[in-house]
Specification:
- With 283 residues, the protein is an alpha+beta fold.
- The protein has 3 domains: 62 residues, Alpha-Beta Plaits (2-Layer Sandwich), CATH 3.30.70.20; 127 residues, NADH Oxidase; 53 residues.
- Helix 4 packs across helix 9.
- It binds flavin mononucleotide (FMN).
Length: 283
């Protein structure tokens, strides 16, 4: 890897040194200079912060680095996106165009990753049959487990632990009926797209990286008038169901830390929602 400075262009502002978290850029004889090049984590900050285009870095894709535009930065727009987004569980039977999905993934890579590892990967499933099969297999398991709580030792356990009164169990009879009578899918919500977000199994902060990318995706999708819903049960099922993993062709070394469904919402929300005030400690 080569990192260099074009001395003629440099105005000696030293921002590259102040900003370099990896300690690559340092002051040598009063001037900024790349010293420990192998420590670079390719975060691009030195190029992003340089006001004089004085830095050459052959480990980065230069064509992706353009001038920052602040014209569209609008806090009210951002706030509206966040408060108007809802988890969507009813979708139109319309596919999401491939170029829109690509556009969303393209933005998600600008999400932060620990140590700039950029180790988030995706499996995008648009095959409705495959999505349906996965939902049915998870629902089948949930349903069978529920049936076990209605008799014998299962019933005793949920009664003793008080789980029989858990809202997830109380709603199960209704859900089972809805599934049979109306084909409602309580797992993947009959969605046209399922996105599995994965990272190397033992990577540090892998779950954080995936969930931060998921957050970018759900908010950008909403701005594009698409709906999403995170599907925690899907992640859990993939951790223990190897035939489901095989169905999705998931690489052995990857673990799914976040998943979501996406599609065009069947209807819109007229109002925003109520949320608890967070517990905050001010020091
Ligand atoms: C980690 C996580 C997992 C979730 N898993 C599911 C899920 O399996 N199924 C589902 O319908 N919603 C799931 N949700 C969506 C939440 O139920 C939803 O965010 C919450 O009720 C608030 O509603 P809102 O997203 O419309 O604001 C999940 C959300 C998060 C953050």
């Amino acid at each position: 890897m080569r990192i260099e400075k074009i001395e003629d262009k440099c105005n000696q502002c030293l921002l590259c040194v102040r900003d370099c978290v990896a300690g690559v850029w340092r002051i040598v004889d009063g001037k900024s200079q790349p010293v420990d090049i192998e420590s670079c984590n390719r975060c691009s900050h030195c190029i992003a912060v340089c006001p004089c285009d004085a830095i050459l870095h052959d480990g980065l894709k230069k064509d992706q680095i353009v001038r920052v535009s602040r014209n569209n930065l609008n806090p009210e727009v951002f706030r509206d996106i966040i408060i108007s987004r809802r988890s969507i569980r009813q979708f139109k039977d319309t596919p999401v165009p491939r170029d829109v999905l690509e556009k969303i993934l393209d933005l998600a890579r600008y999400s932060p990753t620990a140590s700039n590892d950029q180790n988030v990967s995706y499996t995008i499933i648009t095959d409705k049959k495959l999505i349906e099969e996965a939902a049915k297999s998870i629902w089948g398991l949930v349903s069978r487990l529920y049936d076990k709580t209605k008799k014998g030792i299962g019933k005793i356990i949920v009664n003793v632990t008080g789980l029989n009164n858990h809202r997830y169990l109380r709603v199960m009879d209704y859900c089972q009926k809805q599934t049979v009578e109306n084909g409602r899918d309580f797992i993947l919500h009959n969605a046209p797209v399922l996105i599995l977000i994965h990272a190397p199994r033992r990577a540090r902060f892998a779950a954080d990286n995936c969930n931060i990318a998921a957050t970018t995706i759900i908010n950008y999708a909403h701005a594009l008038e698409l709906g999403t819903c995170l599907t925690g049960l899907m992640n859990m099922s993939l951790w223990c169901n190897s035939s489901l993993r095989r169905k999705f062709g998931l690489p052995q070394d990857k673990k799914v830390y976040a998943s979501l469904v996406m599609g065009f919402p069947a209807y819109r929300y007229t109002n925003t929602v109520s949320r608890k005030k967070p517990e905050v400690q001010w020091l």
